[in-house]
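Something for you to look into today, if you have time. I want to see for myself how the chain folds. Leave the record below and I will have a look.
***
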Amino acid sequence: MDRAAIVGTGNRAQLFTEGLARREHVDLVAFCDPNPVRMAHHNTLLTTAGRPEARTYPAEGFEKMLAAEDIELVVVTGVDATHDAYIVPALRAGCRVVTEKPMTVDAERCRRILDTVEETSGDLSVAFNYRFSPVHELVRRELAAGAVGEVTSVHFEWLLDTRHGADYFRRWHREREHSGGLMVHKAGHHFDLVNWWLGARPERVFGVGRLAFYGRENGTRLGVRREYERAHGSAAAADDPFALHLQDNEGLRALYLEAEEADGYHRDRNVFGDGITIEDDMAVVAQYSTGASLSYHLTAYSPWEGYRVMFNGTGGRLELEVEESRWQPPGARLSSRKGAVHGDTAMVNAGGARILVRPLWEPPREVEIPAFDHEGHGGADARLLRALFDGEGAATAANAVDGALALATGLAANRSFATGAAVEIKDVVRIPQ
């Protein structure tokens, strides 16, 4: 039986706590986090699943925990900028490591992780769950079978609506030093998908990005700003459609509102407030080792949520459209027991998915896809857990190099935003072949 620990016990960690608790061959024996209240919440999840409580350790006690608990498997789900502080010592202690995406947030930390993997021959997986979506696997299968011939270009439009997209501007993700911005934290998912779909590596990136909607200046200009710092206890936030009301949701209340006294972290800040250092509207062009190009756009303030991906090739075109939420009513409240804004439960007004292949000289054909219920990222979360912890479909899981390639694209885009120049991936971080 593998002795496991989870470091970082926020909302996303619940997937792993509950997933490991269901596996008889894994013994989840320890949690590590700066906040004891959140660790207690995760212990409640364990006991509810019929498993014994895990011992708890503060962040500074991580290496002590590894030795004292004889840990073999570490799952890292904390603030993105802290991942390397746990990945590196865990690998050096001989542990197998699974980290949430992104692997880290900058080139220096990435290099440190890659060097440690090389030095230790360590086992590091990055939890890119979108690789495990049945819809995305169908796309990969069609491309590999030559449905469009040689892929020459990809257009990828990702839309985050004003419920999910706004959430990145309420919490620590709005600070680049912690998240790397949406090019790293969110778009890393999509860059990894393109790398995986094409079987190619990014080589050169150019991009432009700005804060166009959120933040004090934009909120004031657009006439949508309300005068409050955080939503809880604020009369001004009561009818604000952009406010998150932690007290209305059991999971968010337990994980964050009731945990504030331990670390002072506020999960419900004003999206039109000060201190936002990331972009909400970004456009990127990338060139790949196969000669294919990518044009990518992320909008974090859309009226609907989903994505469109178009592959142009020498033999035709493949079009993917996924409508995760057709629209959002104002003041939509969260109702999930877990408290997730996205991923654990179906999105409000969820739509569907469609894959259409348009060969040259032939009528278009629609690819039959499985029922798309949008639960757990369209079934991807459950399949990810089986790959990471049961070995089922393990070859699909992303490794450290995959994590670095996705990260490097986002870092190159951020550098291009700042300099106005195209950026070579090799000038951002050296990634093993």
